[in-house]
Amino acid sequence: MREKVERILQQAQEGIAAAKSQQELESLRVSLLGKKGQLTALLRGMGELDPQERPLVGQMVNEARGQLEQLLKERRQELEARELQERLATERIDITLPGLPFPRGREHVLQATARAIERIFLSMGFSIAQGPELEWDYLNFEALNIPADHPARDMQDSFYVTDEIVLRTQTSPVQVRTMQQMTPNLPVRIIAPGRVYRRDDDVTHSPVFHQIEGLVVDQDITMGDLKGTLRAFAYRMYGPQTRIRLRPSYFPFTEPSAEVDVSCTICGGTGCRVCGETGWLEILGCGMVHPRVLKNGGYDPDRVTGFAFGLGIERVAMLKYGIDDIRLFYQNDFRFLRQF
Ligand code: DAH
After folding, report:
1. Ligand 1 atom closest to Cα of residue 289
2. What pTM value is reported for the model?
């Protein structure tokens, strides 16, 4: 019996020392100490022994079991340490390797254009005002002196949500909102950038586009103030060689009204494809605020005057970069966007 136990111990010691992985070690443990293992079998066989021998043999087997458990444990720790060493060696990472390139985002060209325009007016003392994109029909049209039979008020041209609410077709209603909030304080000096909506869709028109509105109201504001402000804007935006001209025009909410051209930013005024050989580019509409609009804003048209202007951000960007299709702004094609 003693020999049997010693033989098992001896073989087990060799096996444990030779085990090359934790898996191998585990199957060894099962074959020795498991339910059907060799030592377990010895204990089972004790029934056939002389009762006097049983305690001795039992003790022997239990000692052997303790020794084996200890050996298994030590070997497992060795193997664990070795496996960790191997992993550390083979899975080493080189932290000096260059990282994966992470494409850097940038401002959208329309956002950048809007910011450039805003910066110029902010530096001239304007502040930024905002209004909702879902606007009262009254503020979008009526309060701006746009008569009920004006074509813009037709379902064909505007997105109506209800009889009274429309997706604003222009940023001009922010003029009235701002005046209503500020009256009777002076001066009013704001720009209002934002989205506007029209039933229009071709290479130069998008159903959603962006405008920046401007409004100044104070005592003794004249057309000269308007022209000086716009000229300062054009210099800053397009460079000091830029010239501007005002052409008489018509808007219901200004009187008199004008359209403003700048000398062509591409050819400098000699004539090219972008300016249609005229040397001039139309960039905005403007005028002296109509007395009725001042009144709807809560100001007394006999005591104050004002000027207003409105420009399309897409249009400014298209003329600046010679872009001929407005839809390029919205398609998010990197080949287009990353040029700016
Ligand atoms: N709201 C006009 C439009 O959408 C642009 C405009 C013209 C705004 C003249 C103004 C202005 O404030 O004075 O076409």
Report:
1. 13
2. 0.73
Rounded average pLDDT per 10-residue block, the chain, 340 residues: 84 88 89 86 81 84 88 91 89 88 90 97 98 98 94 87 96 98 98 97 94 98 98 95 96 98 93 92 97 98 98 94 93 93
* Whether the CB of 197 sits within 6 Å of ligand 1: no
Distance (Å, whole) CA 21 – CA 25: 6
Confirm or reject: Cβ of 309 under 6 Å from ligand 1: yes
Number of domains in the chain: 2
Which of 239, 168, 203, 199 shows the shortest CA–CA distance to 318?
203
Please report which helix (H) or strand (E) contains residue 244, including its range: strand 244-251
**Shared-domain flag, residues 126 and 60:** no
CATH number of the domain encompassing residue 303: 3.30.930.10
Q: Is the CB of 297 under 6 A from ligand 1?
A: no
Q: Tell me the C-alpha distance between 120 and 114, whole Å.
A: 10
Same domain, 118 and 204: yes
Give the domain extent around 231.
Answer: 109-337
The atom of ligand 1 lying closest to the CA of 213 is: 12
Residue in the block written with tokens 């960039």:
283
